[in-house]
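Attaching the record inline, Q. Sequence:
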Amino acid sequence: MDPAPPVEGNWVSRRGGVDKELIRNFSIIAHVDHGKSTLADRILQTTGTIAERDFRDQLLDDMDLERERGITIKASAVRLDYVACDGKTYILNLIDTPGHVDFTYEVSKSIAACEGALLIVDAGQGVEAQTVANLYLAIEHNLTIIPVINKIDLANAQIDKVKEQIQDILGINEDQILLASAKEGIGIHEILEAIVKRIPPPKGSAENPLQALVFDSAYDTFKGVIVYVRIVNGMLDASTKVKLMRTNKVYDVQEVGIFRPKPENTGLLEAGEVGYLTCNIRDAKEIAVGETVTDSAKPAESPLPGYREIKPMVFAGIYPVNSKDFQALRVAIEKMKLSDASFIYEPETSPSLGFGFRCGFLGLLHMEIIEERLEREYDLNLVVTTPSVVYKVIKIDGNALDVDNPLKLPPSSEIESILEPYVRAYILVPKESIGTILELSESRRGKYISTEYLGPEKAQITYELPLSEIIVDFYDKIKSLSRGYGSLDYEFLDYRPTMIAKVDILINGEPFDALTCLVYRDKAQQKGRAIVEKLKELIPRQLFRVTLQAAIGGQVIAREDVRSVGKDVTAKCYGGDITRKRKLWDKQKEGKKRLKQFGKVQIPQEAFFAALKV
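Structure, as predicted:
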């Protein structure tokens, strides 16, 4: 006997799964600090997904680092049940996203698993660079955009101006823009109703062969790799034998479930749903973001498009302070790669630091976050070398070489030309800060492109800049020059000819390769001097004098000395002949010579970080 048909208002269908028409998959996109995490909190509370006793602010930001810095680093998924005004219970799959330019890849992964997006704009700050960048990402994927002006309760809220900015960008009517205050809980029901009414249900069918997009993954000590999936076609249950379409590896599924926001075993996922599966995969390298999961018995004809391959912009070496920790660092980095597909690495050796890894990052904040996560989550003590971008070197014999490490730069006699990466930077600033931002961009070898006014108070300045000039402190400078109202977004353009010098840092005449850097030739002397001056401040005084030098080839361009500790060896002498004191001083001098010859200078971690910021 057939089961009864589903009752209207109830999403359980006769297959035991869900009615696809009652599913809504959406993400929240915004610039940093526009209230995205707070809005996610209020949506979780309003739909009753989380009990009040279990609630805490920034609930979906489950890393301590995210909560301390007040930024979202990792995208996270959660399933909500919402009873709408039409009496039906809808399943809402929310994928929260980061807002910083360095984590755009996390945003693009989330957007590809959704049909709609909430675009959050701060009523005080207005539209900012990353707001626009994330919006274009969503439009590229044909997502339905629901604009929301948040923080309308602020004293400095400029609701009408922000409405104009959103209308200019999206070309929509004013009545489509929602007003909310996530902090005060204003407008949350209106947002939920708009999600249900405006965002279309997912396409695909449970009858088709299984196609599931892997959009993220994590590692669990007991379950192995937890694979986050969006089911595009077909069904997935715990009895399925699945195949990864790019590697052709077959696995037995052990658990299938959803996030509420903690994993909940449901045993079944159907077309349109977002959830997870585990297959007791122990090797983090076996699963890749963008992979397509299918049924090994009835495989799909072709894999899903997946994701555009992301190319790291910044490279640095990561080494354990204690060489015995190298194996622990290797395991930690493999697991980190699992939760961050934009992070790449390969083993390398340094004469001064031993065994470590050359790692690629999307930007300097991304680098800082990875380093801090490795130290906290895996209890490691690490050293990070000076970051550099990838230069293309054309040799005299016609061969081209990618140089991501200053030590790989060939001798100048073998080099025909060097090319460096350029980006197109979009800088959004208040009108009164335009002059200072233009000066800053010109000082960084920028090429002016255009200025567009987004209303009477805000302008977007477009520049073409060398990536090496903006990765360290350019964003911080924009923030300080615009009193916190400026913002930056950039995209890779091409490689262009440049003049590069390799600056070596020598400590007591020995090259210290961890601080070697590639610098634009006209700025090499200034950079070398700044590094040795900063090291002089931070390296503690030893029993012998420490000589710090910056050199290009064999030419020293800057020098500083760290004075030796003055120990009074004659303190125990009382009266008597001066020759006794001279004998002690001569003995001390000989000892210091020996120390200088054999002694190793201890360089504190702060010195490395200070050198990065120079």
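The first strand starts at residue 23 and ends at 30. The longest helix spans residues 578-598.

More tomorrow.
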